[in-house]
């Protein structure tokens, strides 16, 4: 919930994929991912593609023949982090060169798209800058780098990158565990006045229905139990089902819900304007659609919402939540908030606090407004002092934190289904997630990775729930024979 922390801790870790065979000629790639889940997904796909190209992943940057940074441009801090990392990589490259080793450096992601060649001017250590729409050209771009070129690939490709990127292999999927991301939509047409995403990721595009279903089946076949559908504006997904009928995200989720082995579905991130009836109905009708919804509102003040070009009022948002809660009464909500958008007064901020008190979020992400080059917000009057942004952020965080722990406390004594995901931190423990995405610590004897177990919550930890419970997994989760080598997501 800190400023600058868009993602949970595990999204900040290196997500190099499990690929490649060891051998004398194997080159090693170190991938570091910043920003949102869509970057995590892209890094996996790039890692998989590089695996075909003879690269083996490494967790140690010192050993890497290729360092790939998948970057985020959302706030100034996020973008600046890349340059300090590139400074360290420059030193590393010099040390490796002294040992006769070559190191190539590639910058992908939203900073690559936003800054292009400028990155090489500022950090000459960089050999390749590649934007999110051209990842399928990565092997070709690296071949050009090998010939001594500095390469910048930031044109929007006419071809479909997902069609062109090699499909992940079964062993690659298995290596990543029982939960998976699946990008179904990219780009954004909303143009909120604070946000760079429409510029870095381009216009809204939906991946075709058949492509999504095929990928989801491959994930399920490799033992994945939970899929999170991703998109910058995921609920704007639109397509045609196998009969040619036009469907939205709700329709797509209906089709995914019947894939054998898939026990849980989630989606993120949604815009309130695109929560249509079909999607709300999916929350009512599909038990596998988890009762947790990340629905950012940014502010509770209509004046600020208008200046942000969110195109809804606070009341529209609250009425929408009424409809969603009617469909799925136990739904837990999560949101994003910005403090100190230009022109935000104490009263505007108070309206945000009021909205938060009314909604009672189960979790939230909060950010101080960061003016981004090229966005309308940056040129607006009434920029708010850093200290005021900060004070508001602290006040908002305190309230959200209180609600979050009250929500967790309210689950003590209740029975919840938990997807077991990985070994716990301590011997004798395993770790999973509640339907509401909370980490749950369980006794090891209760089940195996990939099982969905019913447990009673006995207490709450600082960021998790502790459970005691029955050992019998649900019948649908007995898939151990089909995925014998499943490992945890580290
Ligand atoms: N597509 C998603 C979120 C994209 S960015 C959506 O519309 O909700 C994730 C979050 O970062 C946003 O919800 C917003 O809260 C925050 N954010 C985006 N631009 C920002 C900026 N310039 N300063 C501070 N926070 C920002
Ligand atoms: Fe950015 Fe707004 Fe699009 Fe979300 S909906 S990605 S905040 S422009
Ligand atoms: Fe960051 Fe780009 Fe995601 S700016 S939040 S990595 S879409």
From TrEMBL:
<dbReference type="Pfam" id="PF00919">
    <property type="entry name" value="UPF0004"/>
</dbReference>
<feature type="domain" description="MTTase N-terminal">
    <location>
        <begin position="27"/>
        <end position="147"/>
    </location>
</feature>
<dbReference type="GO" id="GO:0035597">
    <property type="term" value="F:tRNA-2-methylthio-N(6)-dimethylallyladenosine(37) synthase activity"/>
</dbReference>
<comment type="similarity">
    <text>Belongs to the methylthiotransferase family. MiaB subfamily.</text>
</comment>
<feature type="binding site">
    <location>
        <position position="72"/>
    </location>
    <ligand>
        <name>[4Fe-4S] cluster 1</name>
    </ligand>
</feature>
<keyword id="KW-0004">4Fe-4S</keyword>
<dbReference type="InterPro" id="IPR005839">
    <property type="entry name" value="Methylthiotransferase"/>
</dbReference>
<keyword id="KW-0411">Iron-sulfur</keyword>
<dbReference type="InterPro" id="IPR002792">
    <property type="entry name" value="TRAM_dom"/>
</dbReference>
<keyword id="KW-0963">Cytoplasm</keyword>
<keyword id="KW-0479">Metal-binding</keyword>
<dbReference type="InterPro" id="IPR013848">
    <property type="entry name" value="Methylthiotransferase_N"/>
</dbReference>
<feature type="binding site">
    <location>
        <position position="195"/>
    </location>
    <ligand>
        <name>[4Fe-4S] cluster 2</name>
    </ligand>
</feature>
<dbReference type="InterPro" id="IPR020612">
    <property type="entry name" value="Methylthiotransferase_CS"/>
</dbReference>
<keyword id="KW-0808">Transferase</keyword>
<feature type="binding site">
    <location>
        <position position="192"/>
    </location>
    <ligand>
        <name>[4Fe-4S] cluster 2</name>
    </ligand>
</feature>
<protein>
    <recommendedName>
        <fullName>tRNA-2-methylthio-N(6)-dimethylallyladenosine synthase</fullName>
        <ecNumber>2.8.4.3</ecNumber>
    </recommendedName>
</protein>
<feature type="binding site">
    <location>
        <position position="36"/>
    </location>
    <ligand>
        <name>[4Fe-4S] cluster 1</name>
    </ligand>
</feature>
<comment type="function">
    <text>Catalyzes the methylthiolation of N6-(dimethylallyl)adenosine (i(6)A), leading to the formation of 2-methylthio-N6-(dimethylallyl)adenosine (ms(2)i(6)A) at position 37 in tRNAs that read codons beginning with uridine.</text>
</comment>
<comment type="subunit">
    <text>Monomer.</text>
</comment>
<dbReference type="InterPro" id="IPR007197">
    <property type="entry name" value="rSAM"/>
</dbReference>
<feature type="domain" description="TRAM">
    <location>
        <begin position="409"/>
        <end position="471"/>
    </location>
</feature>
<dbReference type="InterPro" id="IPR058240">
    <property type="entry name" value="rSAM_sf"/>
</dbReference>
<keyword id="KW-0949">S-adenosyl-L-methionine</keyword>
<dbReference type="Pfam" id="PF01938">
    <property type="entry name" value="TRAM"/>
</dbReference>
<feature type="compositionally biased region" description="Basic and acidic residues">
    <location>
        <begin position="9"/>
        <end position="18"/>
    </location>
</feature>
<feature type="domain" description="Radical SAM core">
    <location>
        <begin position="174"/>
        <end position="406"/>
    </location>
</feature>
<feature type="binding site">
    <location>
        <position position="110"/>
    </location>
    <ligand>
        <name>[4Fe-4S] cluster 1</name>
    </ligand>
</feature>
<dbReference type="InterPro" id="IPR023404">
    <property type="entry name" value="rSAM_horseshoe"/>
</dbReference>
<dbReference type="InterPro" id="IPR038135">
    <property type="entry name" value="Methylthiotransferase_N_sf"/>
</dbReference>
<keyword id="KW-0819">tRNA processing</keyword>
<dbReference type="Pfam" id="PF04055">
    <property type="entry name" value="Radical_SAM"/>
</dbReference>
<dbReference type="GO" id="GO:0051539">
    <property type="term" value="F:4 iron, 4 sulfur cluster binding"/>
</dbReference>
<keyword id="KW-0408">Iron</keyword>
<dbReference type="GO" id="GO:0046872">
    <property type="term" value="F:metal ion binding"/>
</dbReference>
<feature type="region of interest" description="Disordered">
    <location>
        <begin position="461"/>
        <end position="490"/>
    </location>
</feature>
<dbReference type="GO" id="GO:0005829">
    <property type="term" value="C:cytosol"/>
</dbReference>
<feature type="region of interest" description="Disordered">
    <location>
        <begin position="1"/>
        <end position="21"/>
    </location>
</feature>
<feature type="binding site">
    <location>
        <position position="188"/>
    </location>
    <ligand>
        <name>[4Fe-4S] cluster 2</name>
    </ligand>
</feature>
<dbReference type="InterPro" id="IPR006463">
    <property type="entry name" value="MiaB_methiolase"/>
</dbReference>
<dbReference type="InterPro" id="IPR006638">
    <property type="entry name" value="Elp3/MiaA/NifB-like_rSAM"/>
</dbReference>
């Amino acid at each position: 919930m800190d400023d600058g922390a868009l993602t949970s801790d595990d999204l900040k870790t290196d997500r190099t994929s499990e690929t490649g065979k060891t051998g004398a000629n194997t080159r090693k790639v170190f991938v570091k991912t910043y920003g949102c889940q869509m970057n995590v997904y892209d890094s996996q796909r790039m890692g998989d593609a590089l695996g075909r190209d003879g690269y083996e992943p490494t967790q140690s940057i010192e050993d890497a023949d290729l360092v790939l940074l998948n970057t985020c441009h959302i706030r100034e801090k996020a973008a600046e982090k890349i340059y300090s990392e590139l400074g360290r990589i420059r030193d590393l490259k010099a040390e490796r060169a002294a040992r006769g080793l070559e190191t190539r450096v590639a910058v992908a992601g939203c900073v690559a798209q936003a800054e292009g060649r400028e990155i090489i001017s500022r950090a000459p250590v960089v050999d390749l800058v590649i934007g999110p729409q051209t990842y399928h050209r990565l092997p070709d771009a690296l071949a050009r780098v090998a010939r001594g070129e500095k390469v910048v690939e930031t044109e929007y490709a006419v071809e479909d990158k997902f069609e062109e990127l090699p499909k992940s292999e079964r062993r690659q999927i298995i290596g990543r565990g029982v939960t998976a991301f699946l990008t179904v939509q990219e780009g954004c047409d909303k143009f909120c006045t604070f946000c760079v995403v429409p510029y870095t990721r381009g216009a809204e595009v939906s991946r075709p229905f058949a492509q999504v279903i095929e990928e989801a089946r491959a994930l399920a076949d490799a033992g994945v139990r939970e899929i999170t559908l991703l998109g910058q504006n995921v609920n704007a997904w639109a397509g045609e089902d196998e009969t040619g009928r036009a469907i939205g995200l709700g329709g797509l989720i209906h089709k995914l819900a019947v894939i054998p082995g898939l026990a849980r579905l989630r989606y993120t991130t949604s815009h309130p304007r695109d929560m249509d009836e079909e999607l709300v109905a999916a929350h009512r009708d599909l038990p596998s659609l988890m009762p947790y919804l990340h629905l950012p509102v940014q502010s509770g003040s209509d004046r600020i919402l208008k200046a942000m070009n969110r195109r809804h009022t606070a009341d529209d948002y609250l009425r929408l939540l009424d409809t969603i809660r009617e469909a799925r009464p136990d739904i837990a909500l999560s949101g994003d908030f910005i403090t100190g958008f230009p022109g935000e007064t104490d009263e505007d901020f108070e309206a945000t606090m009021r909205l938060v008190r009314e909604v009672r979020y189960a979790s939230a992400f909060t950010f101080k407004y960061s003016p981004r080059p090229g966005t309308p917000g940056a040129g607006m009057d009434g920029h708010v002092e850093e200290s005021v942004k900060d004070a508001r952020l602290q006040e908002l965080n305190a309230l959200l934190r209180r609600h979050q722990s009250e929500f967790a406390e309210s689950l003590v004594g209740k029975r919840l289904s938990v997807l077991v995901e990985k070994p716990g931190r301590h011997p004798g423990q395993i770790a999973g997630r509640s339907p509401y995405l909370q980490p749950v610590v369980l006794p090891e004897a209760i089940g195996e990775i990939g099982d969905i177990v019913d447990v009673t919550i006995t207490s709450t930890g600082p960021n998790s729930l502790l459970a005691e419970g029955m050992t019998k997994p649900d019948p649908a989760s007995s898939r151990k024979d089909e995925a014998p080598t499943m490992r945890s997501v580290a």
